[in-house]
Amino acid sequence: MKLQEYRSKEILARHGVPLLDGVVATSPAEARAAAEEIGGPVVVKAQVLVGGRGKAGGVKLAATPDEAEARAGEILGLDIKGTTVKTLLVAPAADIAHEYYLGLILDRAARAITVIASAEGGVEIEETAKTNPDAILRLPLHPLIGLQEFEVRRIGFFLGIPAELRKDFGRAMHGLYDAFVGSDADLAEINPLVVTTDGRLLALDAKIVLDDSALARHPDLEAMRDLNEEEPSEIAAREAGISFIKLDGDIGCMVNGAGLAMTTMDLVKLAGGEPANFLDIGGGAKADKVTAAFRIILDDPNVKAILINIFGGITRGDEVARGIVEARANVQRDVPMVVRIVGTNSEEAKPILAEANLITADSLDDAAAKAVAAAKGAAA
Amino acid sequence: MSILVNRDTRLLVQGITGREGAFHSEAMLAYGTNIVAGVTPGKGGQAALDGRVPVFDTVADAVEQTGANASVIFVPAAFAPDAMLEASAANVPLVVCITEGVPALDMLRVYHVLKQKGTRLIGPNCPGLTTVGEAKVGIIPGDIHRPGSVGLVSRSGTLTYEVVQAMTDAGMGQSTCVGIGGDPIVGTTFIDVLDLFNQDPETEAIVMIGEIGGEEEEKAAAFIAREVRKPMAAFIAGRTAPPGRRMGHAGAIISTTGGGTAESKRVALEKAGVRVADSPSHIPQLLRDAGVR
Known about the structure:
The complex is a heterodimer. Chain A is of the alpha+beta class. Chain A has 13 helices and 19 strands. In chain A, strands 1, 8, 9, 10, 11, 12 and 13 form a seven-stranded antiparallel sheet that branches. In chain A, helix 2 (28-38) runs antiparallel to helix 3 (65-75), helix 5 packs across helix 6 and helix 11 packs parallel to helix 12. Chain A is elongated, with a radius of gyration of 25 Å. The model of chain A has no long low-confidence stretch (mean pLDDT 92). By secondary structure, chain B is of the alpha/beta class. Chain B is built from nine helices and 14 strands. In chain B, strands 3-4-2-1-5-6-7 form a seven-stranded mixed sheet, sandwiched between helices. In chain B, strands 9-8-11-10-12-13-14 form a seven-stranded mixed sheet, sandwiched between helices. In chain B, a hairpin with a 4-residue loop joins strand 3 and strand 4 (53-56). Chain B starts with 10 loop residues before the first strand and ends with a helix. The mean pLDDT of chain B is 93. Chains A and B meet through helix 4 and helix 9 of A and helix 4 and helix 5 of B.
């Protein structure tokens, strides 16, 4: 789960990372009040989870509260890569002398938490990795003892942190590490970390991505989820315990297992169609989950056919078949449905499907071809 | 004809009295797996599965009294890291963790502790492994197999079943099928299993099933080019996956910088001489083309 900048900063501040407190605003009037409260020039920043908000006009300087109100009016409602801006962070402006990048990632290759640091801050680290890879330090930390002082010193020297700010840098580095571990993050980055012209070290922007598997033990972080930035269908899926991602095609897919769900999408494409979604109903799904999955798939008006591919293991084929028949009776819109059920209790599923007059298939290739044909037939 | 588990495997089930544990233990017994013990803290002294399997309070007790030499874990995610550590501490040499949703930072610590101890860990978030006709450890349906000489290693669950079924339907049998799991941090990698298959005299060919995300398939390709002389076929799931989105498995995410795509994995594997299938159903034919009977 990705956290907004202001949420990420809240967490970093709690762990002692030096930064300038901002104020969240959701209207131009609130932005003006925030600027008045802060005093002096401010930056008005769109709170969106997609990258590239600066280029899209989502970050603007304001010298006075009047200007802050005007800039907020311009940014609120802006469409940034498909996300409408609804929240702003109004923060004190800083005169930057130098920018750095400082990040931590869960490094699966090194099986460690790895520090990524670069003296080329303010640009995306992926960009630096392409243009100037030597400017990046990658330092895997010991998985059992964590960040050590010698490592903090090494990172500081690599970045060229001014001597008088090394103590502050230590606070930032330790704070970032503690925030990462304390919130079970996959990624935590400060970009840029800056030294100001008046000699302060500050985190100006921050991003934290949390490990979804650990959210259950962080209810306070779960509460930071920004529902504004999720597809309503994806929210409904999460609540039903279904893994779902909306795509642009017209063939809805319902599958058990993530790898098989991706394969089903791939074979739809190979057969000349376009998948409308990724959907994994998970292991052991019963009728209620199948019904929820149906509703989510059919909520997408682009869907012209549905392909259901179930390989029973923990999941029982007859349970799914009954769920399909039940759900179909309860949904408003009827689209052609191709069903393939193999594995556990698939024999018991056959008469249920036959009675419901559904298109069936034995192999996955065949099912994909039939779904593509059905979608094309429906489109014609 | 096997790697990792066989007729001599003396299996212990952690979480044997739970819903999942009991259901799958029944299926493992039915397959012929030698389950010697179960562990559920607080239920020591009872017997599970209609009195056929003694239950112990601790893994240490179970190992001492039954000589268990492998453990399979079915406990909920919150308790799975502790269960893995307990099995390792009791000197169980092979630990298979089926549990899904283990936090990554917990896995980081568990991985390194088990590695130092020399415990082989399979998973977490995996379907387990089956040596066909000898031992089924985990949840791979037993009836989809046919005994034979093709080894299979996969990051996926149901997709593994799909490929096994396609092979069985085509009359092509398997030696051992190993699901290594789809999480970012897993105990055993493709390379570990490929190395075992490569050295197993009774495995003649190898099938590898990968998916988008990470660079394990690319690393495996380099290993294959260097070491593996047995015929190989592969399938990579996720060609149509959009970048930056997590496709169900925590590990299945394409970085937005272009690494870890199905295409980069396919190219790397083909360069290493592996035949890469467009559909799971094409795998038997690709192996035949490579000379496998």
